[in-house]
Amino acid sequence: MLAMLLTALPAGAAEYKLGPMDKLSIRVVEWQTAEGTFREWPTITGDYTVGPSGSLSLPFAGELQAGGKTTSEIASEIAKNLQQKFGLRDLPEASVEVAEFRPIFVSGDVQTPGKYPYDPGLTVLKAVSLAGGMRRAETGQRFERDFLNARGNYDVLVAERNRLLAKRARLEAELANAQTIKIPKELTDVPDAQKLIDDEAAIMLSRKESLTLQLHALDELKTLYQNEIVSLEKKMVVQNRQKDLMSKELASIGGLADRGLVVNSRVITLETSVADMQSKLLDLDTLSLRAKQEINKAARNATDLENDRKADLANQTQATQAAIDENALKLGMYKNLMTEALVNAPDAGALAASGSEGPVLEYSIVRGGGDDGTKEISADENTPLLPGDLVKVVISNARS
């Protein structure tokens, strides 16, 4: 998921730097070799928010400076701190994902200025749409504003639809155990279709590697118990040979003891030794049975992993298809709204025919946190936004 979010950011923000108000999902797990399972650290696992100073406070790991760092850097620092804190032999596995980016802000001549959540792929036009479009200055601008709002929402839904189609293709490939993901026909003419498929391919590879690791651990566990069974069987052979020898000796002197030719203590000693051998054989047989049970248990766990994976993929496919269907309905609605605006407003019609925006909207972005401090840069509708940006919108009276 983190790979999908980061690659959806602008090219200059591929390595996303964390900042205040970013919400992070942190998970720490440790591999238990003897048990063949992963053990999660529930005390640390959870959601955390980067503080105003850029710091991140975690149980045991302490207070870390997250501002200006990537998620991979923070994950590495958490793992090292925990290893030093508890004197662990192996480095635990820590994963850090951005659960929610810090918000963006929209101000100026918009219907509802304020704070809005950031999503990858957010542009100035989409942010203005989230803020209700341009401020209603006069009645004549209503249809133009409605057209801009509908077009912004339509663009957002188109991007969402493309991501859903790529996700569905990935789920279908996983269900079919395919090595690659086929580009859906609906995305054939989409410029960034290959990028969407590459993002989903990275997710598929990560999930496959995780499943392979768990299955490999179960195979190692079965091999361990199989070797134990072989060792127990060798011991049983030796024990049986010793028991047979003692039984023969006991049988040979049994008659002599009845006639008083051999002392009874010798017979009693042999009988006790034979009984001990039989007891040890039973113990070895019990250990062998337990090892076989553990092998069967590991085999069932491997089957359960495969079955759970297939069930999860089926559920995700069903949910994704439902989201695609819902998205199609919304796209149709906003397309009708744009058509209505074009029919009812000559200015909106001219806007669509000539590319004119009617009242001129001037945009700028106030961006901070870099080496140059806070700065204001000019922007247009398609300028991509970064988390924490402030979008300023000004309506000019000039018309084209």
TrEMBL record:
Q: Which domain of life is it from?
A: Bacteria
Pfam short name (any one): SLBB
**Cross-referenced InterPro entries:** HH_AprE-like, Poly_export, Poly_export_N, Soluble_ligand-bd
**Soluble ligand binding domain sequence ranges:** 104-138
Coiled coil segments of this chain: 154-181
Annotated AprE-like long alpha-helical hairpin domain residues: 150-329
**Alphabetically ordered keywords of this record:** Coiled coil, Signal
Indicate the segments forming the Polysaccharide export protein N-terminal domain, all copies. 13-98
| GO MF annotations in UniProt | polysaccharide transmembrane transporter activity
Query: Would you tell me the protein name for this molecule?
Result: Sugar ABC transporter substrate-binding protein
